[in-house]
Design brief:
Elements: H1 8-16, E1 25-30, H2 36-48, E2 53-56, H3 64-69, E3 74-78, H4 83-94, E4 104-109, H5 116-119, E5 124-126, H6 128-131, H7 135-141, H8 148-158, H9 162-165, H10 193-220, H11 222-230, H12 235-246, H13 252-259, H14 276-284, H15 293-302, H16 307-317, H17 320-330, H18 339-348, H19 358-367, H20 381-391, H21 399-412, H22 420-444, H23 450-470, H24 473-490, H25 500-515, H26 518-532, H27 539-555, H28 575-590, H29 592-606, H30 617-629, H31 633-641, H32 647-660, H33 664-675, H34 682-698, H35 702-710, H36 718-721, H37 726-735, H38 739-742, H39 763-772, H40 778-785, H41 789-803, H42 808-817
Helix pairs in contact: 1-2, 10-11, 10-14, 12-13, 12-15, 15-16, 16-17, 17-19, 18-19, 20-21, 20-23, 22-23, 22-24, 23-24, 23-25, 24-25, 25-26, 25-27, 26-27, 27-28, 28-29, 28-30, 29-30, 30-31, 30-32, 32-33, 32-34, 33-34, 34-35, 39-40, 39-41, 40-41, 41-42
Length: about 800
Amino acid sequence: MTLDPSPLPRAAAPRLAPRFHHAIATAVHAPAEYWPAALTAAALAHATGRPPVRLHLPGDAAHLPGALAGASPVLVLVDDPAAAPVAAEEVRRVATSDPPASVWAVVCAGDATPTEAQLAAFDLVLDHRDLTLTTAEVLSALPCTPTTDEAHALLAATGGVPALVGPWTRAGPKPTDPEPRDATLSHTAPQDPAFRDRATATMTRLARAWADRSAAAVAADPLLGLHVWCGRLHEESVALLASRLAAAPVPLAAVRRTRSCSLVTRVDGHDPALPGALAAALQAGPRRAAPGRKAVVAAALAAPVPALEAVRLFTRLGAWAALDHVLGTAAHLLVHLTPAQRRRCASAWPSPVPERLTHLAAGRRFVDPQEPRPSAPGVLNGWLDLGRLHLAEAPQRGGPSQAVREQITRVIAPGRPWTQADASADLATVHTFLTDLCHQVESAGVRARADEAASLISLSLAASEAAVRIGDLQVALSLVRLATRLMHALGTRAAWFPLLRPSVLAHAAFTSAVVGSPAVATVRLESYAHHTHADPPDETTAELADLAARLVALDRGSIPADAPLEFVDTERDFAPEDALARARGVLLRHGPAAAAEWLHAMLGRAAWTESPAWAWWGLRAALVLLHARAGQPGRAQQVLERAPLPPALGMAVRAHLALAGGHPAAAEKMAHEVLALADLAPHWRLLALGARLEALLADGRRAESEVALAAEPWDEQVGTVALFPDRVRALVTARLASPAVRALPGLAADAAPPVLPDVKLTRRQLDVLRALATDATMAQVAQELFLGTETVRSTAKELYRRLGVHDRHSAVEVGRALGLL
């Protein structure tokens, strides 16, 4: 026999070879479609460095002694599982040494499964589950590189079965510059239609032959027949469907037993399923699987199958009316689909959607990547997505669904007032509502109300984003903890909602990084990476995880040498938080002067957006602290008055202002009040501590400050340390472990500042100064500011006096030097 020419055995060999290192006698059994002989031969060759000697018993029995005496591995082929122990006994009988000098394996390619007694003579047993190809093995053997969606389509159709994958691995054109392609199996080799047609025809023919052999077994097992239709559903969902069809409870053990048969494959941890090509052949064959499609759809509508599981099933079966019915009450759960799953839904769902299927039409608009995403001033996209989907559902009287709908409708209502007080009041109401609803779900049993728990998780995470935007960080942490608690209570059922776990972990990492807990954020990021390596998350989740990673790195002083100075797109969902991370990087890498200039310009850009000024609290606080660090309390006060800061942060910042103004006693008092607060964000606590330490040093209490300095993990808070006053910053910097971090410009001692007046201007004077910088005439300035010309002239004179100049040009120059422009 010769080795199969496909590259698939060579791709699988490195994974299988280690299994043979500690076994002399191995039994391999699987249907011929799994290529047991070819894969075993390749694995033996990879394990021993020698090609195996192939023998077929009983015909080649005379050659067995010589083969076993040699150094090459021996591959013994038998046609019947019952012959496997006979072959093993024959090998042991004729071996010239005990144990034999050669590694050997008995391979049986057939549909029958050997008994435990027949396999007892072997050290190692491999079956179809071991021979199923992984995603990486399939992709490495393809003649071109498919997109993620194409790879998913190929693996769904073939199930990783070598014979079904084989037609797609024959030598074909290798595109040098592939264009974006649709997520269809027929596009695996885009530049050769003939190759696609041949591969599809060959795979279909092989699947039909396999289906013909398996039809009797499928017809005799209703649970296996159900798998012909259900695709990759969770085992609990399959048990619910089977129980409904059988009108009797079907235990999970029965589902697992059925899924262990050689017709069902499992690729890279996905739920087991029949290969799509085999399922299609069984659905269309003369002996169609029972139950039929209509019975499965009816059972799924009647059984308590989770909503997203029903969405997957009805999408697979093309049951659009049933899908519309499910989305009428559970469209909001679509937020838990990964981007790839949304694209697959958009590709599979009808377009245009029939007019009567209004819920399906709304769902399709959500999953379709070509649909424009709506926006609203001051409202995060997490709320908008949930709002769109909740409002697309059928109205329901009473119950938590209606309450959720009312909460979201109120939050995203257009034209509503949007002050910080309004936002805080909304957040407090939503926080209380979600906490109460969470207790209700936990009392009733989270696993029994999985869909409702998933809805609460998505609401809590969206609300946590809003809490960070407002600056209520303790509420943000509380909401993330609520979501995390529900996720853990779901247990294995969390897998029903593919994006749920990555989203919870990303939000937990992001919130921890914003409040100043880099160690906690790091643990969450590691878990997030583990759960997203195979299926990338949506844009929002990925952006949150990236922001968290950057904030953690900045807290530890890890920053690229070429930290960028470009500005942040103010229209992005997390622009204020992104800008805060960018500002810390500019400060650490380029120093306080560059950071202050960058912050001035970034806040100027933000002023032209529709987002509220208070949403940029992080940037505003950093700019105030940099002015205080530079000994310019007047300029710092002007920045502080333009928009409110979160209360605790505002008090810590004012403590630094008091220090800059020469009032250490007042600064110590304010810092003490902040440090006495419960559940204070670590970043804000350290800012207050920095002010207190500076006040202690100013009062000559060095020993007391040393005690406080020794108690803090400063290496985890470098980004905050850079905002401290000079003396405290120098003492803390000297305690940092890394010489590279200690040398960062943002931590260095400030050069003696130029002697500039500490000027405080009124809002009108600032407006006139900015208008004068545009070379407009006094009349034009008056027209632009809706003032009289004489009012502008008198304001300009007072402006000149405060700046200590006598003309317009000098006023503009001094204004720039002071950072007022």
